[in-house]
Amino acid sequence: MHALFIKMLNMSVSAAVLALAVMVLRLALRKAPKWMRCALWALVGVRLLLPVTIPSPASVYSLVGAPTDDSGSVEYFRYTGREVKPMVSFDTVRVGLPAGNSVTVAQVPGTDMVMKERTSSKYLPLVEEIWAYGAAVMGACALYSYLRLRRRVRACVDTGGGVMLCDDIDAPFILGVIRPKIYLPSALSQPALDCVIAHERAHLRRRDHWWKPLGFALLTVHWFNPALWLAYILLCRDIELACDEAVVRDMAPRERADYSQALLDCSAPRRVITACPLAFGEVGIKQRVKSVLKYKKPAFWLVLLAVVTVAAAAVVFLTG
Fold this sequence. Notes:
Helix content is 53%, strand content 13%. The chain contains ten helices and eleven strands.
């Protein structure tokens, strides 16, 4: 069990490295199609799901000479059965202590600085317990939020086509994974209604009602990793930007203005990070309105560059 936990920690750190790289790449590709950003985040998900890597001389870990385990995955920590050993590249020396005792430390070459090479595993069961409690709390909160929302939409009117009207909600959203439904506020005006339905159906075509809960499930497992919290927040924003782009791609300027107005009318405050639902006006309204109004079809060379960048990132960061 301890070895599996250490394996999970190594995968989490590797995914954090990839997530930071994606944050840089998404800025470099800000004029590329927004779905490319989602493809980059998908690489982070793959890194979190796959316990093994394919060997490659082009891997970033091969280039820096990082230590790997038998599966080819990079090791930041190693469990030997008695201790958790950080994989540091310092020179190991023996330092004498009074009464004839000695301790192994790691000395930074060229300096007088020393650090312990081995961290005792006696605290490992406590760390695992804290991790389990944290994951359980996140899972329980997600379940409570889902069931609470289910109760709110219990009294709704089915208008056909998987679209439900409800008096007890303030913003449109999709709820459900196996049989998703589009829930709309009863007071929504007709011009906004058409834009909202087009947006939510684009979500369904892209299977975003699967990818967002999957991302939250991975975050629940790796809740201790701040880089992955930021990655999940940016993923939610990029999902909405990509969906907006898919809807307004063939719209006239006047229709885009109506769509932007619908975003403003349906904007909702975001209080917590959630697994569901996919709410129409939940995240990044200001950025989304600007993106909609300034949308221009990207040039072919830019799309090609983005595809090559995603492929290169997969080779560099998903191999060992």
